[in-house]
Amino acid sequence: MSERDGFQPGVPCWVDTWQPDAEVAVAFYGRLFGWDTENTMPADVPGQHFMCRLRGRDVAAIASRPQAAPPVTAWTTYVWVDDAAETSSRAGAAGGSVLVEPFASLDGGRVAIIADPAGAAIGVWQPGAHRGTQLVNEPGAWSMSALSTPDPDGSKRFYGAVFGWEDETFELGDAQMTMFKLPGYVGGEPQQPVARDVVATMMPAPGDQREARPSWNVDFWIRNVDEAVRKAAELGGKVITGPYDVPDVGMRQAVIADPHGATLSLTQPPGVG
User: Fold this and answer.
1) Three-state secondary-structure class, residue 6
2) Residue 1 pLDDT > 70, yes or no?
């Protein structure tokens, strides 16, 4: 399932980051992940939009920050929907808000940014010609997104109402982890440590971070997480959490920030190294 050509409604399908200096971000991520990049912004449109590719396939985008965008530099996760306007209305009815009203994307689709009741932002993507990421779950590609929030119960209700997600919660050490699932969906890879109908995960914000901004965080697979962390620091990034082993699942992870502060996690999955 590494190569994809489209997604079903309710499935996260794309990630991008709006940056104050897109070229600096392109240099950072290009060297970190081995991406090739192409500025696909039309000449008569201000700003830059870099399509990032791995093995010739679209995996993410890096763009100049639009004037209407929130001022925080971050990665945004987008969920495939049939109708961006209808989904935005449903988000409002479920207690969320619309941060960026639906607008036409360059490929003929429509995009909006919504927030759940706690304030975590997520994109909705009504596809046009572009059909989301073409590679997932391999080194250098996005794997999954995770919600960090002080309101897990409210989040379960919200995402169930907006995207039809079901939830399954279990104990993970001293905390609880929730798997968001979409009935009938089969994604991911057979060797992954979570069921293949899982579309996203959620962890409550730790006690010492309850005042931190609720957020959706992106995870990219990497072949060697220790080497990637060293390289990120050399390229002007910051190590937020150094490499650590995830008990019982054979994964090794780290959390970093790019030169402009957008955070992401890196995962070395089982059997990769």
Assistant:
1) coil
2) no
